[in-house]
Amino acid sequence: MSYARLVLANLGRNKRRTVLTVLSVAVAFFLFATLRSVVTALDAVAEVGSESRLVVTHASGITFLLPQSHAPRLAAVDGVDGVTWANWFGGVYIDTRNFFAQFAIDAESYLPMYPEILVPEDQLQAFMAERTAALVGSGLMERFGWQLGQTITLQGTYLPGDWEFTIRAVYTPDDPSFGDEMFHFHYDYLYERSNRQMSPGWFVLQLDDPDAAARLSQEVDALFENSTAPTKTETERAFQTSFVTMWGNVGALVQAIGTAVFFAILFVAANTMMMAARERIGEVAVMKTLGFQDRALFGIVLAEAVGICLVGGAVGLALARATLGSARLIQSILPGFTIGIDTVTTGIGLAALLGVLTGLIPALQASRLSVVEALRRVA
Amino acid sequence: MTIPVIYNLRSLRQRPVATLTTAFGMALVVGVFVAMMALSNGFRSALVGTGSEDNVILLRKGALAEMNSGISRQDANIVAGMPFVATDEGGRPLVSAETFVVVPLYRSEGRGLANVVARGVGLTAFEVRKDVEIVEGRVFRPGSREVVVGRTFTRRFPNSGIGERLRFAGQDWTVVGHFEAGGSSFESEIWGENEQFMPVFRGEVFQVVTFRMADPGSFDGVKASLEGDARLYVDAFRERDFYEDQGSMLSQLLDFVAVFIAGIMAIGAVFGAINTMYAAVSSRAPEIGVLRCLGFSPRSVLGSFLLEAVLIALLGGVVGCLFVLPVNGLVTSTTNWNSFSEVAFAFRVTPRLLVNGLIFSVVMGLVGGYFPARRAARQTVVSALRGD
Questions:
Q1: Predicted local distance difference test score (pLDDT) of residue B244
Q2: Taking CA atoms, which of A244, A269, B114, B210 is between 20 and 30 Å from B8?
Q3: Radius of gyration of chain B from Cα atoms?
Q4: Do A60 and B170 touch (CB under 8 A)?
Q5: Distance between CA B128 and CA B221 in Å, rounded?
Q6: Residue B278 and residue A17: Cβ atoms within 8 Å?
Q7: A248 vs B112: CB contact, 8 Å cut-off?
Q8: What does the CA dihedral B46, B47, B52, B58 come to, rounded to 10 degrees?
Q9: Which is nearest to A74 in space by CA: A50, A106, A97, A40?
Q10: Is the CB of A271 less than 8 angstroms away from the CB of B114?
Q11: C-alpha angle with apex B25: B20 to B27, nearest 5 degrees?
Q12: SS3 content of chain B, % helix, strand, coil (to 5)
């Protein structure tokens, strides 16, 4: 005799209830997938930074500029393979809402140090050849519907005026968490238009040996300790992590919400299971009379709960993957946001656990039911 | 004729487990919703409270954020001499020309570095900004390396007690006072004298000029004459609007997340409520039949079951609001991305938010109860009595 058919028949006896319960579980797992992916994306942003690159900033804070004269001295440090510099450009594209990161880079030294930025060869040459050219992420191109060769205007904030750039190259990142919404242009353009007032916001150093990062950071900072512009040097990963921690306790907050959601749905689902069990006391008593073992009844009721939760979980996770897996809106805030396989597998595991938890009490009740007691109540 | 409420209350008592689990599910939804709205509420009020209606803030044209701005000493003096600037009893203009920088400082308990706003202000700043008040110690003395720090700052950073020394920009600064600013983001800042901060930071330039208007109603005229003045190259904002706008992106994001998460959770909880109410309706079919025989109309039955669903939801709503009350006043922090600096702010659970939470729960109850209640009302008397 197949118990599976019995479980299916039980699920089918009140189709509306089964569907509603499955849907409420699905909703919970939709949220679970979304929230967990936010947390993993935050972690991924911290990890995207390389450990073999050092970032040198002004000791007084990231808003202070460093003199260009630091560059040759940095290059001369033993163990440093390459030096490049860049600066932040807080331009506004039409409206402040269209926020995206803009960097003025010394392309000749910068791009070789960032193999993450993949650019077609011909576009790269076109970018290098033009002073006002821009190198733009594929995600950003999509977001604003830009075309290669288009000229766009940014309104400067700390350097006032209209800045025109021609998009000459489009990059795709080798890893989505690197981000595909960055806008790069030539540092020289920034420097010249600022009447040669501008200087680098930070330097990036390429190390030949990542293990030497800690030692070299100290060495670099010691080198400039008594200069007019003392430095703070750390690995790129540590630098990125400090930006992530600036979000505050978002991770903890998201986890607290996730837990609340999980418990809310646990209650909803458990309530339904118990209602279903209560209605069936008579049936269970009859089955026992017919010779069904306690253990079998325990299994049947539990299987029903686990089945509902697994189906609900699968629906919710699939829905999240289908709708949010590639949502542009979320990715522009959190590069690399994606609903990964590990989230799905964790979700399925949780769904099974939820099923066991919600089914446990009704299953125990069913298996411990006293036949006489139950039949008397029914009659 | 309506069915007495006591009937619903007794029915709910009949099945306490189902009632409580359903209510608890809703309580969690309402709790999460109110908590998240309290978060964005707290953030917004920290920024809104930062500015005053009566003050005008000037930035270099197009700068948009204090950090990007630059205003020369000469321009600041021109502004100070303008007729619409309020003056104190001694006839001094209520103007504060300010430098604005962000410095990295180590947080207490080794929780890493945070960026903090160091604002160099004029001595009149404490008169221009009425809400800012020294609550302990005194104001910095002109010409000395002294600073005052905000209340929330003192809780989050070491060496911020009075008489202690903070080190930034390669110098030591003695903390001589603590100030409060009505919970606004100023309380996350360090204030020193502008003439002291200028040379060690960005040189001979102010970032913003803030002044009190002699006639707060005349803002439009003031803005037009400042922005139209050929000697100046500035944008003028009402101070309150400016600071509110600085955080609008983040508070909108927080609002959106709150509604998104609570909305999705609400769908799940409504499904649960529908289940519970359907079960209630089907197990009480004979009762419904009796009620109809007694002469209650289908409409009364519908109303009665809807009311029952709303009662469950309301119970959940009240419990959810009680859950959330303890987070009121809890201080957390995030970054104001316009200045890359840390802003500390407190969760703010207001009566209005609680009412919103209750309304939210009632709506969930109505939505969840409608279909089961309609079914109860539509049953024929005979089938109801038979218990189908």
A1: 85
A2: A269
A3: 29
A4: yes
A5: 20
A6: yes
A7: no
A8: 150
A9: A106
A10: no
A11: 90
A12: 55, 20, 25
Query: Cβ–Cβ of B25/A265 closer than 8 Å?
Result: yes
pTM over 0.80: no
The b-or-e profile of B12-44 (16+ CB within 10 A means b, else e) is beebeebbbbbbbbbbbbbbbbbbbbbbbbbbb
Yes or no, beta carbons of A20 and B275 under 8 Å apart: yes
- Any idea which of A308-312, B12-16, B56-60, B324-328 has the lowest mean pLDDT? B12-16
Among B316, B267, B294, CA closest to B34: B316
**Sign of the CA dihedral A267, A272, A275, A281?**
negative
Residue of B nearest to A160 (CA): B62
Which residues, 6 or more positions from B43, have their beta carbon under 8 angstroms from its beta carbon? B247, B250, B251, B254, B334, B343, B345
In angstroms, the CA B217 to CA B50 distance is 19
* Residue found by looking up tokens 């509604």 in the block: B259
Mutate to test the interface with A, among B28, B34, B156, B241 (most CBs of A within 10 A): B28
- The pLDDT score that the predictor gives to residue A109 is 94
Q: Which residue has the tokens 């008489």?
A: B163
> Which residue, among B226, B242, B273, has the nearest Cα to B368 in the 3D structure?
B273
Residues of B in contact with A30 (CB under 8 A): 264
- Do A135 and A107 meet the contact criterion of CB atoms below 8 Å apart? yes
Tell me if B143 sits within 8 A of B186, measured CB to CB. no
State the nearest Cα–Cα gap between A276 and chain B, in angstroms: 9
Nearby residues of B116 by Cβ (< 8 Å), 6 or more positions away: B102, B103, B104, B105, B153, B157, B188, B189, B190, B341, B342
Q: Closest residue of A to B339, CA-based?
A: A63
Instruction: Tell me which of B152, B265, B327, B388 to substitute to probe the interface with A (most A C-beta atoms closer than 10 Å).
Output: B265
Q: What is the pLDDT of residue A284?
A: 83
- 3-state DSSP call for residue A343? helix
CB atoms within 10 A of CB A299: 17
Give the pair of three-digit tokens for residue B271: 């499904």
Q: What is the mean pLDDT of residues B360-371?
A: 92
Q: Is this complex's ipTM strictly greater than 0.90? A: no
What's at A210, amino acid-wise? P
